[in-house]
Design a protein that fits this description.
heterodimer, A: alpha+beta, Pseudouridine synthase, eight-stranded mixed sheet, two-stranded antiparallel sheet, 10 helices, 12 strands, B: mainly alpha, 28 helices, about 60% helix, PsdUridine_synth_cat_dom_sf (chain A), PsdUridine_synth_N (chain A), pseudouridine synthase activity (chain A), Trub2 (chain A)
């Protein structure tokens, strides 16, 4: 019985490119269901039936003995059971009769014990993107909402290829134009990246709704908590070049409120800024909030044991992060109450 | 589902009328000894109905209990008032009926004719009242067999046989069918027949789960079909294998089976022996739809560009390719041929790659490319066969083929 406990919490899986996130969720669910249903369930429920006692044992009057009979389990008694209920089914107190409601029957009749699990998905990844993908089971779904409200940054590595442009900014799209790229150098690319980071920094301050000239803003900045806490357009908080080998390049982008398509568009625009063109070959998320690529489970590890372990390992990280962000913001919403409480404690 | 309900309610009506017409006196006499009536009444009282389903007796038992119990017997009262001269039960008799439910009930029957009458309004003792069980009625309408399984001997026996009722009830009309069957009369002969055909004992449950409709088939028709297969020179063991692997095979008429065998022979251009071999290995070809098979052959020939004799070889090695999804087939071929650069004749030699997942092929190929080991040409050194590429489990693949550790492979997968 204890073996078939449904885990609850948050864990990350590694979504391969070319598979929709819904399929990943389904796959995890089916595998978990298979394992949960394979585990031994609870013992079959028992009928209380009054079976006729061997004749002449203790006279005619007390000829019935109470016996517990499994409710249609895989049991050789199954044959005798019907005889019992039809032949000697009298003489039970009403309370006992009520307890033997016929709704519990063996798995073969009832079907699998678990049919679906509540598995929710965190920040989505589109079909072509790969990387860390957070899933929540059971009460993890609530944590997912909390985590969403934290507006944590995500980190991507984005691969690009100069010299081509396609209609959907990815390398598999329809080719729109070809350009030369010999004039591009790493310095030029990094200059563009710096510009992008600068403009996005301004946008970040604007959307975070904090007056920069206050003590509060300073404290938030010290803790590194300045970020928009409501919906905002995609914001890149940091961008740098990891690799540069013409015509290919690879960027690391820290951002929030993005979509993968937006990142592809960024690559496309970098190409245009450099008086060339570029397509995005790969979008791979290496961190989603507190979940890093090392926490993510590969396809071969999507089983009950690994998932349980992953949930366990990440629990603390998630909790501290939630307390840090949401706790702080709750406090800043009610500074007066805090002050009042401090005052009360002093006196 | 609704029609089960109709049937159940029809039986109930039938029982009610039968009760009113045939044995009002019997029922009257057991009105205050409901449990005794429940205990033995159906069996001796319905001698002409011995062939009726046992669970109907059960239902009858319930119905009679429900309507005979004194607290709610207003209806019964009206029915019984003209028969007030009927004997009323004697305590002693009641005790006897309780304690010896399996005794010769004929004696009891005779005795009861002289029992003094009882009225529906008569007070009964506390003891007697306690002994009346008001079990809930069988539901008249239900979406599952779960409600009936504890009351139907046929269902109970099927469950013990290993039939998964939760699967069966999802099928159209299958649940209704099982409820109308009698184990001794209808089910037993089919089971014996299947055993004769050669279905293993432990396979009977899964077989009936897949195909409950065979229970309603005519035995002679089934025997003709087996005889047809025998006339086509299929061995006994082969027929057994085909029937257990494709449970619906025996539901196909002889003409249809003949048509289908002919289809595979002509369409693939195989010899009689090879066709037989093919359907023995994958009997679901015979029971499945033919349209997807035709389409797959077209895809192989026109879109993938295989020669006719190559297709024959591929199909003979992996018959599954005929039932695979077209889209998957095309995607896999596209990757193997256009990205990994594997020529047609190599694919013909190792058609099993089409059965494996594209993602698996992709991952392994990329890993090998990353290590510089992706070499699929048998003429050159350090050749990796396609079979090894797809069929080995991850650990063996890493150590034997890629010569790397499984940790490295996992790390690599996380960079894709």
């Amino acid at each position: 019985m204890a073996a078939a406990a449904v885990p609850g919490g948050l864990f990350a899986v590694y979504k391969p490119a070319g598979v929709a996130w819904g399929c990943v969720r389904e796959a995890v669910e089916t595998r978990l269901l298979r394992e949960l249903n394979a585990a031994p369930g609870r013992a079959p429920r028992q009928h209380v039936r009054f079976l006729p006692a061997p004749a002449g044992a203790d006279g005619g009057a007390a000829g019935l003995v109470a016996a517990r009979v499994p409710v249609l389990a895989d049991h050789p008694l199954g044959k005798g059971r019907r005889g019992a209920s039809a032949g000697g089914g009298g003489g039970g107190s009403p309370g006992r009769a009520a307890r033997t409601a016929p709704d519990a029957v063996s798995v073969a009749v009832r079907g699998p014990r678990f049919r679906r699990l509540k598995i929710g998905a965190g920040h989505r990844l589109d079909v072509k993107a790969s990387g860390v993908f957070v899933l929540g089971i059971g009460h993890g779904n609530k944590l997912l909402t909390d985590l969403y409200n934290c507006h944590l940054t995500k980190v991507y590595t984005v691969g690009g290829l100069f010299g081509k442009a396609t209609d959907d900014f990815s390398d598999t799209g329809k080719l729109v134009e070809k350009t030369t790229f010999d004039h591009i150098t790493r310095e030029k690319l990094e200059r563009i990246l710096a510009v992008i980071q600068g403009t996005n920094h301004k946008a970040l301050l604007m959307h975070s709704n904090i007056d920069m000239k206050t003590q509060e803003a300073y404290e938030l900045a010290v803790k590194g908590l300045i970020r928009p806490m409501e919906k905002s357009p995609p914001i890149i908080t940091a961008i740098r070049c990891l690799q540069f080998a013409l015509p290919e390049f690879q960027l690391e982008i820290h951002c929030l409120h993005e979509t993968q398509q937006y990142l592809r568009k960024v690559v496309h625009e970098i190409g245009l800024e450099l008086k060339s063109s570029a397509v995005c070959t790969q979008v791979r998320r290496i961190r989603d909030g507190v979940f890093t690529v090392d926490d993510a489970l590969l396809r071969t590890q999507w089983n009950l044991q690994s998932i349980q372990k992953a949930i366990w390992d990440c629990q603390l990280k998630v909790k501290t992060e939630l307390e840090k962000t949401l706790g702080h913001h709750n406090k800043s919403c009610l500074p007066k109450m805090d002050a009042a409480m401090a005052h009360a404690a002093d006196s | 589902m609704a029609s089960w309900a109709r049937q159940v309610s029809r039986w109930c009506c039938l029982l009610q009328t039968a009760r009113a017409a045939e044995f009002p006196r019997r029922l009257r006499s057991c009105s205050s000894t409901a449990q005794a009536c429940r205990g033995f009444a159906p069996l001796p009282l319905l001698p002409s109905r011995n062939d009726v389903l046992p669970w109907r007796f059960q239902a009858y038992g319930h119905v009679s209990v429900g309507s005979c119990s004194p607290p709610d017997s207003a209806k019964d009262g009206s029915l019984s008032s003209p028969e007030s001269n009927l004997p009323s039960p004697v305590k002693q008799e009641q005790a006897k009926a309780e304690t010896l439910p399996d005794l010769n009930t004929k004696i009891l029957y005779e005795d009861w004719d002289d029992i003094p009458p009882s009225s529906a309004l008569e007070e009964i003792s506390e003891e007697a009242a306690v002994q009346i069980i008001a079990e809930p009625l069988l539901p008249l309408q239900s979406s599952t067999l779960r409600d009936y399984v504890d009351h139907s001997e046929t269902l109970a026996k099927l469950v013990h046989l290993g039939v998964d009722l939760s699967q069966v009830e999802k099928r159209q009309k299958a649940g209704q069918l099982l409820l109308t069957l009698d184990f001794e009369k209808d089910v037993r002969k089919i089971l014996l027949f299947l055993k004769d055909v050669g279905v293993e004992d432990n396979q009977l449950g899964p077989f009936l789960t897949k195909n409950p409709y065979i229970l309603a088939e005519d035995l002679e028709a089934l025997e003709t079909r087996v005889a047809y297969l025998k006339s086509k020179k299929f061995g006994k063991a082969e027929i057994a294998q085909m029937v257990s692997r494709a449970p619906y095979l025996l539901l196909f008429s002889v003409e249809r089976l003949d048509n289908r065998l002919g289809f595979f022979k002509n369409e693939l251009g195989l010899s009689v022996k090879k066709t037989k071999d093919l359907v023995i290995r994958l009997p679901r070809l015979l029971t499945g739809k033919l349209e997807p098979v035709k389409e797959n052959l077209q895809v192989c020939q026109i879109e993938l560009g295989f020669q006719r004799n190559e297709i024959q070889q591929i199909v003979f090695k992996t018959p599954k390719i005929l039932t695979a999804s077209k889209k998957r087939l095309k995607q896999t071929f596209d990757y193997l041929h256009n990205i990994m650069g594997i020529p047609h004749h190599m694919l013909t030699r190792f058609p099993q790659v089409f059965n494996s997942k594209l993602l698996r092929i992709k991952e392994r190929h990329m890993f090998l490319t990353f290590l510089g080991r992706a070499q699929y040409d048998p003429a050159q050194p350090s050749y990796i066969s396609l079979d090894q590429l797809v069929s080995l489990p991850d650990e063996v693949f890493c150590t034997e083929i890629a010569k790397a550790s499984i940790q490295d492979f996992e790390k690599f997968l996380k960079t894709l």
